[in-house]
């Protein structure tokens, strides 16, 4: 028993010391976020919203009494404030109010300069 204790105690101490030491060279710095990748753009973020919620009526040509098309960036860009107002107050789409996160994304896109 004493032999085992005398043998195991140094081994355990070496394991603890060996595992607890740190090497700063192995630390990987956190990745910095790419501001361009997080930028809200029409093509990446807004077009899928418009396509799935608006183009059914605001297609080319418009249907179901829709007065204009929203199939291109220029169409959406020129009517962005109206789109935001109508989605924010729940008037559009007729199927029901969009989730607040989607409305916020449209607002952020407008505030960010409506990048294509």
Structure description:
The protein has five helices and no strands. Helix 2 crosses helix 5 and helix 4 packs antiparallel against helix 5. It starts with a helix and ends in a 5-residue tail after the last helix. The mean pLDDT is 85.
Count helical runs: 5
Strand-residue fraction?
Answer: under 5%
Q: In terms of structural class, how would the helical and strand content be classed?
A: mainly alpha
Number of strands: 0
Helix content percent band: 40-55%
* Gyration radius, in Å: 29 Å
| Biggest sheet descriptor | none
Task: Sketch the topology as an H/E string, one letter per element.
Answer: HHHHH
Rounded mean pLDDT is: 85
Cα-to-Cα separation, first versus last residue: 76 Å
Q: Can you tell me the overall shape? A: rod-shaped
List low-pLDDT spans: none
Strand-helix topology:
Blueprint: H1 2-20, H2 42-53, H3 73-78, H4 80-88, H5 100-111
Helix pairs in contact: 2-5, 4-5
Summarize the structure.
By secondary structure, this protein is mainly alpha-helical.
Tags for this entry?
about 120 residues, single chain, about 50% helix, mainly alpha
């Amino acid at each position: 028993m004493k032999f085992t204790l005398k043998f195991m105690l140094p081994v355990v101490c070496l394991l603890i010391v060996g595992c607890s030491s740190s090497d700063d060279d192995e630390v990987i710095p956190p990745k910095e976020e790419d501001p361009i990748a997080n930028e809200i753009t029409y093509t990446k973020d807004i077009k899928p919203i418009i396509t799935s919620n608006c183009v059914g009526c605001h297609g080319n040509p418009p249907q179901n009494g829709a007065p204009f098309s929203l199939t291109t960036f220029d169409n959406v860009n020129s009517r962005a404030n109206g789109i935001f107002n109508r989605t924010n107050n729940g008037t559009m789409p007729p199927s029901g109010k969009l989730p607040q996160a989607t409305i916020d994304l449209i607002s952020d896109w407008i505030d960010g300069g409506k990048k294509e």
